[in-house]
């Protein structure tokens, strides 16, 4: 159900954003930026005592937090405040902030891959070989291995895991993979339970139990629960998401050989990202929706900057979301393969974040110190906060890669205001929040020339309106823009 919902909302928001947002060929989808705070909420100790409908209760809490944060982001964009806020955002701020999102999940990657090393490591090697060693190999005039490195690696590994499962490589005498680990008495089975759980492809019943057709609908988990503590955390994260999008807008405009958007167009794009995330909250995806940094790289690789291609892809996502078996098939992918896939994707996200430094003087000692401090403190400060969550919950049956996100109620900040403790302990344990705070403070207080800082250049509104090519790229379709021309802060 959740996968179909994500496909549906991703398709709808992509279609909306491509048509009425920044008019740049960017794909929208669930953001990694929202993943860390979502994990913090899911693993919050206040939910550990729930026995009935725990999943639905957590999803309703997430829905409420995402809806409030998305409304804040929409107001940030459509009110014109984003045009003012963007003056604080430069490549030296964007680079470590996005990079911190990628490196923050290092503990989830290979530690989980190691549970079935032949499957996980094999998939990582395949993706590396396809994307690097075979990147210049053409098949029918296309660099197939570079463009489809991830789906090819996933498909081949998935097929190999299926054949090994069917051949009995992960079957052990007298052991049943469907029996919970806590109920296993035999020492022989306990020894192999991890391999059975992580290597086999038939441990999930998602494909078998999913319906053939299902229409995702809003409020499917129930009425959202609005909690100001969680909403405040998500509001800060929505600002991080906007910072990510600012860098993506600028980079994409250069890739498609267009003038950078005006501050009004940028604000309009951020505003629509907020509206898209409200849809994600209403449909209960569990994360917000934002411009995906990885798709900047996709445009660079494929050389395709057509909005029509993105709109067709969005329609395909919407159609696939109606077929329950498609969602069930995706949900049945073994967790170790997901971790191997994310090892590559998060590494890409980190590198793409740092690539923003090319718009500034990357060799400047000023920038080196700011970026270095931002990245180091984005790992070190959260580690200090997270150790309290781990030590306080050492007896809980929570996977090691989720333990850092249980810090909310056990962090070092312990004032008499419980809500404030929750917000500060959670925010300061999130890597990208620390990276953003350190970078934005230092970059805007340490003297440096515009060239050294790599200040993003945005097109002037009047100059953009006088150029037909720029108007074609950023004008709203169906003459909608004429209605809103008086709204200068979100117009062309």
UniProtKB/TrEMBL annotation:
<dbReference type="InterPro" id="IPR006043">
    <property type="entry name" value="NCS2"/>
</dbReference>
<feature type="transmembrane region" description="Helical">
    <location>
        <begin position="368"/>
        <end position="385"/>
    </location>
</feature>
<feature type="transmembrane region" description="Helical">
    <location>
        <begin position="422"/>
        <end position="442"/>
    </location>
</feature>
<feature type="transmembrane region" description="Helical">
    <location>
        <begin position="31"/>
        <end position="50"/>
    </location>
</feature>
<feature type="transmembrane region" description="Helical">
    <location>
        <begin position="115"/>
        <end position="133"/>
    </location>
</feature>
<feature type="transmembrane region" description="Helical">
    <location>
        <begin position="62"/>
        <end position="82"/>
    </location>
</feature>
<keyword id="KW-1133">Transmembrane helix</keyword>
<feature type="transmembrane region" description="Helical">
    <location>
        <begin position="145"/>
        <end position="164"/>
    </location>
</feature>
<keyword id="KW-0472">Membrane</keyword>
<comment type="similarity">
    <text>Belongs to the nucleobase:cation symporter-2 (NCS2) (TC 2.A.40) family.</text>
</comment>
<feature type="transmembrane region" description="Helical">
    <location>
        <begin position="339"/>
        <end position="356"/>
    </location>
</feature>
<dbReference type="GO" id="GO:0022857">
    <property type="term" value="F:transmembrane transporter activity"/>
</dbReference>
<protein>
    <recommendedName>
        <fullName>Nucleobase-ascorbate transporter 12</fullName>
    </recommendedName>
</protein>
<keyword id="KW-0812">Transmembrane</keyword>
<feature type="transmembrane region" description="Helical">
    <location>
        <begin position="88"/>
        <end position="108"/>
    </location>
</feature>
<dbReference type="GO" id="GO:0016020">
    <property type="term" value="C:membrane"/>
</dbReference>
<feature type="transmembrane region" description="Helical">
    <location>
        <begin position="312"/>
        <end position="333"/>
    </location>
</feature>
<dbReference type="Pfam" id="PF00860">
    <property type="entry name" value="Xan_ur_permease"/>
</dbReference>
């Amino acid at each position: 159900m959740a996968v179909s919902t994500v496909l549906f909302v991703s398709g709808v928001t992509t279609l909306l954003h491509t048509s009425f947002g920044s008019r740049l060929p960017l794909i929208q989808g669930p953001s990694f930026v929202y993943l860390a705070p979502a994990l913090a909420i899911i693993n919050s100790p206040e939910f550990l005592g729930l026995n009935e409908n725990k999943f639905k209760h957590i999803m309703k809490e997430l829905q409420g937090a995402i809806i409030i944060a998305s409304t804040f982001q929409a107001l940030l964009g459509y009110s014109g405040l984003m045009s003012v806020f963007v003056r604080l955002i430069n490549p030296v701020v964007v680079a470590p902030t996005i990079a911190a999102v990628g490196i923050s999940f290092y503990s989830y990657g290979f530690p989980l891959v190691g549970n079935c090393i032949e499957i996980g490591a094999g998939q990582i090697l395949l993706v590396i070989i396809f994307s690097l060693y075979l990147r210049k190999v053409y098949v029918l005039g296309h660099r197939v291995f570079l463009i489809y490195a991830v789906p090819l690696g996933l498909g081949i590994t998935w097929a190999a895991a299926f054949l090994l499962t069917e051949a009995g490589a992960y079957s052990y005498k007298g052991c049943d993979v469907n029996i919970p680990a806590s109920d296993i008495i035999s020492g022989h089975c306990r020894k192999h339970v991890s391999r059975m759980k992580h290597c086999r492809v038939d441990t999930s019943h998602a494909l078998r139990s999913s319906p053939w057709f299902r229409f995702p609908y809003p409020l499917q988990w129930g009425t959202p629960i609005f909690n100001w503590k969680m909403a405040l955390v998500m509001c800060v994260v929505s600002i991080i998401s906007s910072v990510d999008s600012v860098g993506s807008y600028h980079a994409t405009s250069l890739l498609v050989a267009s003038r950078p958007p005006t501050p009004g167009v940028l604000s309009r794009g951020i505003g629509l990202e907020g509206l898209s995330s409200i849809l994600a909250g209403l449909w209960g995806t569990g994360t917000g929706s934002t411009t995906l940094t990885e798709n900047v790289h996709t445009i660079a690789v494929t050389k395709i900057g057509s909005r029509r291609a993105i709109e067709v892809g969005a329609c395909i996502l919407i159609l696939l979301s109606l077929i329950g078996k498609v969602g069930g098939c995706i949900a049945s992918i073994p967790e170790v393969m997901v971790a191997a896939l994310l090892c590559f994707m998060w590494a890409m996200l980190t590198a793409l974040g740092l690539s923003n430094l090319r718009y500034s003087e990357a060799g400047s000692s000023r920038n080196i110190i700011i970026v270095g401090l931002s990245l180091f403190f984005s790992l070190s400060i959260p580690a200090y906060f997270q150790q309290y969550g781990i030590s306080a919950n050492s007896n809980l049956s929570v996977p090691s890669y989720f333990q850092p996100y249980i810090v909310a109620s056990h962090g070092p900040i312990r004032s008499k205001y419980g809500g404030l403790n929750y917000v500060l302990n959670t925010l300061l344990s999130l890597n990208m929040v620390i990276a953003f705070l350190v970078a934005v403070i230092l970059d805007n207080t340490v003297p440096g020339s515009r060239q050294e800082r790599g200040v993003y250049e945005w097109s002037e509104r009047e100059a953009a309106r006088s150029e037909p090519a720029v108007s074609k790229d950023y004008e709203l379709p169906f003459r909608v823009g004429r209605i809103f021309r008086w709204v200068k802060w979100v117009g062309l």
